[in-house]
Protein: 1,4-dihydroxy-2-naphthoate octaprenyltransferase
Amino acid sequence: MKHWIEAARLRTLPLSVSGIIVGSIYALSNPTETINTPTEVFSWKVFGFALLTTLGLQVLSNFANDYGDGVKGTDNSDRIGPKRAIQSGVITPQAMKKAIIITSLLTLLSSIILIYFAFGKDNFGYSIFFLLLGIAAIASAIRYTVGNSAYGYRGFGDIFVFIFFGLVSTLGVNFLYAKEVDPLLILPAVSIGLLSVGVLNLNNMRDQESDKKAGKNTIVVQIGAQKAKIYHSTLIVTAMIAVIVFAVLSGYNFDQYLFLLAYIPLTKHLITVYKNQDPKLLDPELKKLALSTFLLSILLTVCMISLISDIIVNLFLGGR
Structure:
């Protein structure tokens, strides 16, 4: 059990739910024209299964990454980061392959239940669209490192992370509540997506040399360490700016800029990465950036809600 928990990489899980939290609370704090109260727009069932589906997708991605890099020999003695399950031999490739299949089926089941709670027997078109989106997310999580045409080995991993853990996570879950897309929410969705890409980029910066030897052509391998630092800074700074623009366009009051507190660890992180000369020292920054993103999502959702106590009371007394 210990080895499976380690293979699931728990430190990546808070990052994966950041978009779900922001998208859900935005729906709670911004009733639509057809849905006028928080208790009408928000559903605990949708929220719970959205979290479960996203966590399943993240664990699946981690298992598939362990399997793909393990069987290809990318995870070897040259790798700087912590040893992976297949690399160290504590889990066999066959067992990991079974875990990938089981996790895929459970994630698909969770997504189907989520879609049912969101749309019921109505909106058949929406249900089909989100089902296909869920299948695409599962397939993409697996194909990142698994197979001869794994897109993570061609530098496309950043795109997958940005789309599914940023845009789809935030905008998608919000649509499950509101049944419409709010263009303003694109800004925090982009922010979370960019910060999630930053975590992947940091991982690739740490493993640059071993990835290069193994033929894993990540963006970092393609552009080199120095340009990767510039790329990383661009991701983080753009994400920070996007949230500020969102707050301004939303007409936030002064006391609603509490989310700026998350910019303190993000700024410290940027300085550390910029000054770094030893890839080994980048490993702790992975956890710091993931937790900083989670912190930003929590603080931002608090800032979204006015009269939060009244809304919470309504949810517990009349929520579904």
Observations:
- The chain has 16 helices and no strands.
